[in-house]
Design goal:
Elements lengths: L26 H13 L4 H21 L1
Length: 65
């Protein structure tokens, strides 16, 4: 074993985090969101990043029409 962690989540290889987005939500909403993600074995950072990328793709497709 090489000691490297195998994971199906996280940013793609070679991508570096260079920016952060901060949001303000109610603590109860955050707690429920985090609990749901944890139960699914997911992280908030990865899921929100995926949502942002999907939003960008969808809006690019609308602009092309």
């Amino acid at each position: 074993m090489t000691g490297k962690k195998n994971s199906n989540c996280g940013r793609p290889a070679g991508r570096k985090k260079t920016a952060k987005i901060e949001i303000a939500i109610e603590p109860m909403v955050k707690d429920e969101f985090m609990d749901l993600l944890h139960s699914e074995g997911k992280s908030a950072s990865v899921e929100i990043g995926l949502w942002i990328r999907e939003y960008i793709r969808n809006n690019r497709l609308k602009e092309e029409k």
